[in-house]
From TrEMBL, chain B:
It comes from Acidocella aromatica. Pfam families: FAD_oxidored, Fer2_4, GCV_T, GCV_T_C, SO_alpha_A3. This is Sarcosine oxidase subunit alpha. One of its GO terms (molecular function) is sarcosine oxidase activity. The keyword Oxidoreductase applies. Keywords: Oxidoreductase. Residues 894-979 form the Aminomethyltransferase C-terminal domain. NCBIfam families: soxA (TIGR01372). Belongs to the GcvT family.
């Protein structure tokens, strides 16, 4: 799903990650909006995809404990979406790469 | 007052100045350098509070931030009042006003102490179990009683008069704790040129060195070495030392939260200065030198006032020049308590005995005590204490058994050894490793760029502590140390006391009144993990987070479960390390800055007219414009009449606006909205519906085609940011091949709706460069022109069902154009109307409001908009989801309908449910719910919109809306109540 929760910048004081935007460099999390799991591919011709696959695309996500490829948007910066590889347990970010690039 | 327990010399207090303060209305004196706790002890005051659950009299137990008992409220008035402060951390100032907590009417006579008499009825799990009693017992008896009695402190009723500052900072090395390890780390790091922040919770740096009269470091007395170290650090311009600063939280990526107290220590007399500052420090490296916390021993009645930690008593003596009592009994499993006994002995305090749990205690301190003639009881325990508001004596028994011996004392000083402060390290998600020789959890592999030095890492000798600090700071210094004591030995669990375990209370968690027996009971009830025991007994759940109790709880659990301590595990440490007042987190975000208000260009005009405003997301919108004594219903009826019969004017500036530009703009909108856009001609408007990928309506709005490559998209007021983000998402990630630019123009345009049969007459005279006659400019068209001399995008559009225009002008001209329109409309009785009238008028026409008629589970067909779907389009967001068999299989989806009540005066409640048979036993079959409901002036009766199962097929059916005061019968009708043919639109 492609929904981002609305974010108010004033709610950011508890957000602590340091996120490397591939366009701007390291910025505090307060400047970003989370965009859910990365590499969830929307089929180029949705008509050709069966119901099961489309339901999977709509609703099913990995939610792992550990390495996770996820989307972020530099909402209060350059505005670009990009992908991040983050460990959901340690919160350590191992990679940050542009949309269209593959997970390093 | 005389401060009878103050020594004439020694300590770091300034005896040349005397400060006056009050505690529970009684006046005392102290000196600069005192804490409230040390000043109270100097005056012989030990009783400072009542315990949480049993209201037991409690005294000062510690000399630091781990204090569980001595919680006080401080402040000269309600606006400067802070509850639950630890008296051990409150610095004394002249005029300080403080009060004890959790007692009524007074500390000496507390009615709540009845709980102590009936303590058997308040066992562990009491709170959980009472939930299972009859509801009445809970609401009528337990809850009010618990609320009244179990409060910790009182909340001030007035707004906090203080200001709070916030700061972001970066550094190479953040050192937490300015004791010997932290100072050594800061010195080593500073020498490498690193930017260093050194913070410490106390009023001055030094940690344990502030009460260290004997040890020598590099040939200097500890206090002299401390002075020299601070001089050395001050010479580095890139080193910042923050006293009175708690590192309360360790967040990902080496972000540390610091709470720096700025004016508390001298009484917050000047409100123009910030009281405190919240730091968010991003450090390349963190050195945790947080020290260690002395553990109490768990023995029967170990909570009477006058019972203290041994090292705390020594700190009161050495740092504050205070004798905690005249006759001390020491109970220990650690060598350093002997040092306390020796120091007190030298200062003139009688030592009633040193009771040592260990059979074979040896070493220089033990020898020194024996040499000084202090009575030592090895392999012994304390089986109980007596004294009501102050300890008066205790019974010593050999562990091996046999008869006890009663000794009198006025203080009982205990030491169970030291627990390293691993809180911050654990918060950083570093792994803890159990050290069975120390009976302590020590920092293991770190998860962040951090290291732990000193006694926080379990080190016991001052030399090791200093050297570990130097190493953590990137140095290799090897400190020379002499005459330093070794803090070896310790005990966890409940000490043996040879009594009936059912008849005694040995306190484990002082703040939450948890006893050793409670933990055993929890295990008997089947709790196994330490997290279960914690929740069942509430051990460690008070504001001190079990700083004193966690290890002893594990020590009690281990033999009962027959498991080693690490197999039971330790609980999670959470921020804040010690409580931080709310104001620090609020910072500047209070009052008008708490949530910024958004105001339109016309806001000031509406306010001057006496409009009543409502909040729509962050916007302030005029809801109605009352005249004279009108109430809302009267004002709205008048405004509705004006629009239907003449002309009204409405500020629609809050509508979201997005400029969609580029060669592929139409194709982009084709893929985003359900409607077809390719064939829409420049100069035309279309009502667009936006779905989420799951097929449900998420937004709507009128979209104008300005040119082949440019669209003016409007969104709902609340959806503007969401829609732009969604568009950016698809454009950047799914359709990057499209050449399109998106720009938010919400705040660039003021939007003025002029609606009603006379609308054209009002607008026409102000228009330059366009023909707005009915023929030249039909419904759903637009033109770029000048209005009142201002460049404008003029839309012929209606959300009222009447002939209407929406005028988009640069926001800075919004109010001027509005006033010109008012002037132009004067002959026609132009009437400003607000959002309430807008809602009524659109409901009369059955126009939906996204978020009111839709709730995230509504498809275009559900609201009757299936016909708008561009059938020929291969794809748009949500199309594939709508084609799923799951949707097709649903034959009874909720659909938009109108409802008319039998009683035309009855305006239904929005959100009310609809049923077929009000006599059906509960749970009844819900057929749908009322989404909008108003009094319609045009129809002279109430109207309602509803989402109803299979609603369109139910037209004409009579259903029921069960309400609190009876069932309302309704008839299902079309959702368009007024002018169903739509002739008025085309006027
Ligand atoms: Zn960026």
């Amino acid at each position: 799903m492609k929904l981002l929760p609305p974010r108010s910048p004033i709610k950011g004081s508890q957000e602590m990650l340091l996120i490397p935007c591939p366009y701007c460099g390291n910025r505090p999390e307060i400047e970003f909006a989370y965009g859910g799991e990365a590499h969830v591919v929307r089929a180029a011709a949705p008509r050709t995809v069966d119901d099961t696959a489309w339901t999977e695309f709509l609703y099913f996500r990995k939610n792992p404990r550990g390495d996770h490829a996820e989307r972020w948007r530099h909402a209060y910066g350059c505005g670009r979406f990009f992908n991040v590889k983050r460990n959901t347990y340690t919160d350590q970010i191992e990679a940050s790469y542009r949309i269209g690039e593959t997970l390093p | 007052m005389t401060q009878p327990y103050r020594l004439s010399t020694g300590g770091r207090i300034d005896r040349s100045r005397t400060l006056t303060f009050s505690f529970d209305g009684k006046h005392y004196t102290g000196h600069p350098g005192d804490t409230l706790a040390s000043a109270l002890l100097a005056n012989g005051v030990h009783l400072v509070g009542r315990s949480f659950k049993y209201h037991r009299p409690r005294g000062i137990l510690t000399a630091g931030g781990e204090e569980p008992n001595a919680l006080v409220g401080v402040g000269r008035d309600d606006a400067h009042f802070t509850p639950n402060l630890r008296a051990t951390q409150v610095e004394l100032y002249d005029g300080l006003t403080s009060e004890s907590q959790n007692r009524s009417p007074s500390l000496m006579r507390d009615y709540g102490a009845v709980n102590d008499v009936f303590w058997r009825f308040f066992p562990a799990g009491f709170y959980y179990k009472t939930f299972m009693w009859p509801r009445k017992a809970w609401t009528k008896f337990f809850e009010p009683r618990i609320r009244e009695m179990a409060g910790l402190g009182r909340s001030p009723k007035t707004a906090d008069a203080a200001r709070y500052a916030q700061r972001f900072a970066h550094c190479d090395v953040l050192v937490v704790g300015a004791g010997p390890a932290g100072l050594a780390a800061a010195l080593a790091a500073a020498k490498t040129g690193a930017r260093v922040i050194l913070c410490d919770e106390q009023s001055e740096p030094g940690g344990s060195l502030l009460a260290e009269p004997e040890a020598m470091i590099d040939g200097l007395a500890a206090a002299e070495w401390l002075k020299a170290a601070l001089v050395q650090l001050a010479a580095y311009p890139q080193v910042k030392i923050l006293p009175r600063t708690i590192a309360f939280g360790y967040f990902p990526h080496n972000m540390i939260g610091l709470a720096q107290s700025l004016t508390d220590h001298d009484g917050e007399w000047d409100d123009s200065k910030p009281r405190g500052r919240l730091w968010q420090v991003r450090a390349k490296q963190v050195v945790i030198a947080a020290g260690a916390i002395e553990r109490p021993l768990v023995f029967p009645d170990n909570d009477r006032p006058g019972i203290m930690l041994a090292e705390a008593a020594r700190i009161y003596l050495e740092r504050y020049g205070v004798l905690p009592g005249r006759r001390a009994l020491v109970f220990t499993a650690n060598d350093v308590a002997y040092r306390t006994a020796l120091a007190l002995h030298r200062a003139g305090c009688a030592i009633a005995g040193i009771v040592d749990l260990r059979p074979d205690a040896g070493g220089p301190l033990v020898t020194a005590a024996q040499k000084a003639g202090l009575p030592v009881f090895p392999a012994s325990t304390i089986a109980g204490t007596d004294g009501r508001l102050r300890v008066t004596g205790a019974t010593i028994k050999p562990i091996a058994g046999g008869s006890g011996q009663h000794v009198s004392c006025d203080v009982l000083l205990m030491s169970g050894g030291f627990t390293p402060s691993v809180h911050l390290f654990s918060q950083s998600r570093g792994k803890l490793v159990f050290d069975s020789t120390l009976d302590a959890f020590l920092p293991g592999a770190p998860a962040e760029a951090c290291s732990v030095a000193g006694s926080a890492a379990g080190l016991q000798s001052l030399k090791e502590v200093l050297d570990s600090g130097a190493a953590a700071g990137g140095g290799a210094a090897s400190y020379q140390v002499a005459n330093a004591p070794l803090a070896q030995g310790g005990f966890i669990g409940a000490v043996p006391y040879h009594g009936d375990p059912g008849s005694v209370r040995a306190f484990l968690d002082y703040q939450n009144d948890v006893t050793a027996k409670d933990v055993v009971l929890a295990l008997r009830e089947g709790m196994r993990s330490v997290e279960h025991v914690k929740r069942f007994t509430t051990n460690g759940m008070a504001t001190d987070q079990g700083k004193l109790s966690n290890m002893n709880a594990l020590g009690i659990m281990a033999p009962v479960l027959n498991k080693p301590v690490p197999a039971i595990g330790t609980t999670t440490f959470r921020m804040p390390y010690t409580p931080v007042p709310f104001g620090y987190f609020g910072g500047y975000a209070r009052g008008e800055l708490f949530e910024p208000e958004r105001r339109t260009a016309i806001h000031s005009w509406a306010a001057a007219q006496g409009a009543v405003f409502e909040d729509v997301s962050l916007w302030k919108r005029a809801r109605y414009f009352p005249r004279g004594t009108e109430d809302m219903r009267q004002a709205v009826a008048r405004e509705c009449r004006a629009v239907r019969n003449g002309v009204g004017i409405f500020d629609a500036s809050t509508l979201g606006k997005i400029e969609v530009v580029g060669p592929d703009a139409a194709e982009f909108l084709n893929r985003m909205y359900i409607n077809a856009w390719t064939k829409l001609q420049p100069g035309k408007l279309r009502y667009g519906i936006l779905l989420r990928e799951d097929g449900f309506v998420i937004d709507d709005g009128v979209i104008g085609r300005i040119s082949d490559t440019r669209f003016h998209v409007t969104t709902t007021t609340g959806g503007a940011a969401r829609v732009l983000t969604m568009m950016e998402d698809y454009l950047q990630t799914e359709f990057p091949e499209l050449d399109v630019w998106l720009t938010s123009t919400t705040e660039q345009y003021a939007v003025i709706a002029v609606q009603g049969p006379m609308a054209r007459e009002v607008v026409q005279p102000l228009v330059e460069g366009a023909d707005i006659s009915a023929e030249a400019m039909p419904h759903m068209s637009m033109v770029e022109c000048r209005i009142a001399g201002v460049p404008a995008r003029l839309f012929r559009v209606s959300f009222t069902g009447e002939l209407g225009f929406e005028i988009n002008v640069p926001a800075d001209y919004g109010r001027a154009v509005w006033e010109d329109l008012m002037e132009s409309g004067r002959p026609y009785g132009i009437t400003p109307y607000g959002t309430e009238t807008m809602h009524v008028l659109r409901a009369e026409k059955g126009y939906i409001i996204v978020g009111q008629e839709t709730d995230g589970t509504v498809t275009p067909d559900d609201v009757g908009y299936a016909g708008m779907i561009g059938k020929a389009k291969p794809d748009f967001v949500g199309k594939r989801a709508l084609a799923r068999a799951a949707f097709a299989a649903q034959t009874n989806r909720k659909q938009l309908v109108g409802l008319l009540t039998d009683d035309p005066a009855h305006v239904l409640e929005e959100g009310a449910h609809i049923v077929a048979d009000p006599a059906q036993p509960k749970p009844m079959t819900m057929l749908g719910h009322v989404t909008s409901s108003y009094w319609s002036d045009a129809l002279g009766r109430s109207i309602a919109l509803a989402l109803l199962r299979d609603g369109r097929a139910r037209t004409g059916e009579q259903l029921y809306v069960p309400l609190e005061n009876g069932n309302a019968r309704v008839t299902v009708v079309s959702s368009v109540f007024y002018d169903p043919e739509g002739v008025r639109l085309n006027g």
